[in-house]
Design goal:
The complex is a heterodimer of chains A (about 200) and B (about 100).
Chain A lengths: L1 H24 L3 H21 L3 H26 L12 H25 L16 H11 L1 H23 L21 H14 L1
Helix pairs in contact in A: 1-2, 2-3
Chain B lengths: L5 H21 L3 H25 L5 H31 L13
Classes of the chains: A mainly alpha (about 200), B mainly alpha (about 100).
Subcellular location (chain B): Cell membrane; Membrane
Keywords (chain B): Cell membrane, Membrane, NAD, Quinone, Translocase, Transmembrane, Transmembrane helix, Transport, Ubiquinone
Main location (chain B): membrane
């Protein structure tokens, strides 16, 4: 039993760490999205071990089902230009910053874990922890207001994403249409976009 | 499911966060930058759930993770919309081409 738990943990951790590495290291964004998918599935497995079954399901649904698919949609929409070429311009400061960050993070990790009392086994989780019933009861009694605010936030995000991404098919050879200003959806973002497009192409 | 100590989960989350942060600093592709942000958010979520596991009397960490997932979904949609708008203007995915505000 114990060896199976350890094996499951290391399998999920391997998925997480290797997936994260491939996400960051891949030149092709599609491979990056696949690495992100692997990391997400691994984290869902770790949630299962941490008595968070509902969150594991949500993780698969929202991240693997929505976010990664959204990334893939955008990558497919952009086509070959989603892959930015190799660049060498000002590479040194970036690598320097990343190296300093890596050294600081590893140092902090070593310090924290040398100061801790060592790993202890966990006590058994109480029944109902992380299930839909236990989680939902607490969510809808103590966190109702944030839940509703999260719904409003998602609505605003949907409207904002559509407004920003739709844009306008600007032909730089044509002057802007005369009746443009009184159109309902001509918000600030699209006005800025149009101006910039004209600036770039002129 | 309680024979794996909590510190192991924290190490995995820390490694994932460091990977995402370094990817955010090193890469120039806007899509990879957004994916690195998602990696860091996932690492924080894993830390929250792990700490909730050693204080099992309530679900505060898991509820916080729930909201972080909701905010991350909103952030991904808006971020990808901005990436599309940026591509429409500049015809590239390179983040260092985003210098319109630099005089």
């Amino acid at each position: 039993m114990k060896i199976f738990e350890l094996a499951f943990f290391f399998l999920a951790s391997l998925l997480v760490v290797l997936g994260g590495f491939f996400t960051v290291a891949s030149r092709n964004p599609i491979r990056g999205a696949m690495g992100l998918l692997s990391a997400i599935v691994g984290i869902a497995g770790l949630y299962l071990m941490l008595a968070a079954e509902f969150l594991a399901a949500i993780q698969i649904l929202v991240y693997a089902g929505a976010v990664v698919v959204l990334f893939l949609f955008v990558i497919m929409l952009l086509g070959p230009s989603a892959t930015s070429g190799r660049d060498t311009r000002s590479a040194l400061p970036r690598y320097l910053g990343a190296g300093v960050l890596l050294a600081a993070s590893v140092g902090a990790l070593v310090l924290v874990f040398s100061a801790s009392a060592g790993p202890r086994a966990l006590s058994a989780a109480p029944t109902g922890m992380g299930t839909v019933e236990g989680f939902g009861r607490e969510l809808f009694t103590q966190a109702v207001v944030p839940f509703e605010i999260a719904g409003v936030l998602l609505l605003i995000a949907v409207v904002g994403a559509v407004a920003v991404a739709r844009g306008k098919q600007v032909d730089p050879t044509l002057a802007p249409a005369p009746g443009d200003d009184d159109k309902q959806g001509s918000d600030a973002a699209r006005a800025v976009l149009t101006t910039h497009t004209k600036d770039v192409h002129s | 499911m309680s024979s794996v100590p909590i510190e192991y989960y924290l190490v995995v989350a820390a490694v994932l966060f460091i990977t995402g942060a370094i990817g955010f600093l090193l890469r120039r592709n806007l899509l990879i930058l957004l994916m690195s942000i998602e990696l860091m958010l996932n690492a924080v979520n894993l830390t929250l759930v792990a700490y909730n596991r050693i204080h099992p009397l309530n679900h505060n960490g898991q509820i916080f993770t729930f909201f972080v997932i909701a905010v991350a979904a909103a952030e991904a949609s808006v971020g990808l919309a901005i990436v599309l708008a940026f591509y429409r203007v500049r015809r590239t995915m390179r983040s260092d081409e985003a210098d319109l505000l630099r005089s």
